[in-house]
Hints:
The structure holds two protein chains of two kinds.
Chain A: E1 2-6, E2 16-22, E3 29-30, E4 35-41, E5 44-49, E6 54-59, E7 66-68, E8 72-77, H1 119-128, H2 146-151, H3 196-211, E9 214-222, H4 224-239, H5 247-260, E10 266-269, E11 274-277, E12 283-289, E13 292-294, E14 297-298, H6 306-321, E15 335-339, E16 358-371, E17 377-390, H7 396-411, H8 413-419
Parallel strand pairs in A: 12-15, 15-16
Antiparallel strand pairs in A: 1-8, 2-4, 2-7, 3-6, 4-5, 6-8, 9-17, 10-11, 12-13, 12-14, 16-17
Helix pairs in contact in A: 5-6, 5-7, 7-8
Chain B: E1 2-4, E2 7-10, H1 14-25, E3 30-34, H2 40-45, H3 47-65, H4 67-70, H5 81-105, E4 109-117, E5 122-127, E6 134-137, E7 140-143, E8 147-149, E9 162-163, H6 165-168, E10 177-181, H7 185-197, E11 200-204, H8 216-228, E12 232-234, E13 239-245, E14 248-255, E15 258-264, E16 266-269, E17 273-275, H9 282-285, E18 308-310, H10 321-335, E19 349-351, E20 357-361, H11 364-369, E21 374-380, H12 385-390, E22 395-402, E23 408-415, H13 418-430, H14 435-439, H15 450-459, E24 472-475
Parallel strand pairs in B: 1-6, 2-3, 2-7, 3-4, 7-18, 9-16, 10-11, 10-16, 11-12
Antiparallel strand pairs in B: 4-5, 5-6, 8-17, 13-14, 14-15, 19-20, 20-23, 21-22, 21-24, 22-23
Helix pairs in contact in B: 1-10, 3-5, 3-7
Amino acid sequence: xxxxxxLPDIGEGVAxxxxxxxxxxxxxxxxxxxxxxxxxxxxxxxxxxxxxAGKVLSLHAKEGEIVKVGALLVTLxxxxxxxxxxxxxxxxxxxxxxxxxxxxxxxxxxxxxRVMATPSVRRKAQELGVDLARVKGTGPGGRILETxxxxxxxxxxxxxxxxxxxxxxxxxxxxAPPPRAFSGPEGEVERIxxxxxxxxxxxxxAEAQRYASLFxxxxxxxxxxxxxxxxxxxxxxxxxxxPLTYLPFILKASVQGLKAHPRLNAQxxxxxxxxxxxxxxxxxxxxxxxxxxxxxxxxDVDTKSIYRLAQELKDLGxxxxxxxxxxxxxxxxxxxxxxLGALGGLMATPIVNYPEVAILGVHKIVKRPVYGADGSVGxxxxxxxxxxxxxxxxxxxxxxxxIAVVKGHLEDPHQMLLELS
Amino acid sequence: MTTELxxxxxxxxxxxxxxxxxxxxxxxxxxxVEKEFLGGECLNRGCIPSKALLHVSSLLTxxxxxxxxxxxxxxxxxxxxxxxxxxxxxxxxxxxxxxAQLLKAAGVSTxxxxxxxxxxxTALLRPAAGGDTEELHFQAAILATGAYPMSLxxxxxxxxxxxxxxxxxxxxxxxxxxxxLGGGVTGVELGQHFARLGSKVTIVELLPQIVPGTxxxxxxxxxxxxxxxxxxILTGTRATGLERAGPGVRLTVEIPGGTRVLEAERxxxxxxxRPETRGLGLAAAGITLGPGGFPTxxxxxxxxxxxxxxVGDLARPPMIAHKAYREGILAxxxxxxxxxxxxxxxxxxxxxxxxxxASVGLTREQAEASGLRVREVRFPYAALGRxxxxxxxxxxxxxxxxxxxxxxxxxxxxxxxxxxxxGEVALALEMGATVRDLAETIHPHPTFSELLQxxxxxxxxxxxxxxxxxxxxxxxx
Lengths: 421, 477
């Protein structure tokens, strides 16, 4: 018997996901719970197992395609009988198909679906990537108004491939910026599809640049004491297999700064035009992985010891590089720290992890001669911090004061450790 | 040598030339290849020239039939077919030049020839003037090659006795007897035209009604009118053999209990059209075909090969110009990366006969089949003041709307100028209007557009110029 498997509701309000890779192909005979497909939702990669044993008849989505919850993924030829009931153990039950009437590919184009929205609103929805079947209309008779669209969350469906070479001065009447395409000789280039994590980054970064007004402030910190403290402490931890970087200290110092300036530990609610200030301190830590930038989240940094943070960072880092982080570990940050480690450069203009309002960039530590308080010149370990923030809601003075607090704690780490609760 | 192109548009008909114009607006560099004339079938041998002819023959009929009643004395009125053809050709030429001018202004480079795809991004151009073929490499292509008239074995058009629409439109004499095989839109339009000019016209249609696909009562209204003017209409009738005899033809048709031989000077073969995929190289490009030989297309008109689009008659039915226009624009925007998709609620259809048939949205049967509870009412032309002033009192307008909410679902009319006001209902459907929206929009008096207001009030049970008892009301079970 033919068994249709649809993208199940993965939870947390996830409405759609991107097919990252198929683990089976048409004609494969698979067992129950065998991994079928990897689906990317927001930033978490979810591996979906097959609820049934059987033979794969057809795959209904291509890699890179965005599929909605309830959309048909696979048809299986699954034997009926005892083993045929969906296992349910490892998977929430597949939801019934959402009522999104997909236009018939060939049939007559006359009837159309009966979406209650005017042509201009329908076009706007397409531009925003909003699925009208999921929008509640507030107009007369349930009609979907243009204002209803802004309330609906835009998805990535608004982006479409172009087959383009917009010449100079290309204009697009219709809102979206003119898409650009490469038109040079194909033999001399390699084309790499923007997929999976890279696509999530692609969209998130563009969103940050589109909405936030970014301003970067850079400060120099004398971390000579911190360097000595870390040198003394690292051995013990490394014996237990945990590397001690400067990051746990920087996270701790950041929390001190955020406690003094809570408006940086916040995100923006664009719709309500409000700054949402967080009472907890969940710090995202930007991390390079083979597939691109990942930002695992260290929860409640204020309650954790330096050792505990070092351990968590190691664990998140390892699993992040293996692509094994859960959605929960990748979401919910209130502030973000980004560091390139030893390659940390002199300064940078980090982009906020939108809709957060601030991000701290950490740079490499260099040994430089400096004048001491008594006028003598001596060696010091110096490090720059760059803080980028959304100038729409924060002023330069807040960033400067925030950095001053962070700087004070990093320059006198013993004092910081004494103050920590 | 390979020519590098940005966007290749194949075919200069409504789908192709509007795609090219829109791409020009979007800043794209377009090369449009047309094998014959810009404007395609619609402009050269379809919509435009046939309307030019139909306008004249309806004028003639009106003078003859209504003239005496109106007090217009115009004895000896006749049509000089040569002059009529000159005028038709002039209209077409002017329109064609207009399209060329628009394309030029949009920066579209127009080439004359045919195109055969050789791969997903490559094609061969064969110049119409002959000479070497040219290899093309494109970033994206929009195919708009239209459709070609179907033939029947043994009845192939010969350009003299068995004709296609192309020759029919350019005839400069009136055949005393005209046989029309195929009672579709073109068959009835041109059939009525020649009947007005004096031909004895017989229409042979295989299906049980003329203009198949049109609402039964609309088709019936038209049939009554055609028969009243002396046309013979044989529906449910199969033609089994054709003999080209002397200066004319003899067509054998099956009738109940036997056969009948129909004789005429000319046979107009109009039995449908097929998507023009011949020689286009769709297989070489990897484009898959679906039912009816149409390339399968997405809701952005993209074929199975990303970057190659198909629009208009080539892409899918119905084969009508305004659908092709919209699809051409859609494909152009898709090429440019705009997220537009096909999301239309209504596809208006008009048949330019007398009475004119116009239709948009769902019929009562279609609405009920999709599970809606509907109410349908019918308002007669005879209850409209303006219809009396013009002496065009035949026909009716039907309105279909959802019983509970009053949401408009469709409108179907048979009668004078119905094609001119059906666009208003298309707008109403796209806007999600209700019957009350239509009723309470003030319509200019006295015009035929008032029919919509009248039928809307009738639907609401608040009729203006007709009594409630006169209303044909049909409700879902």
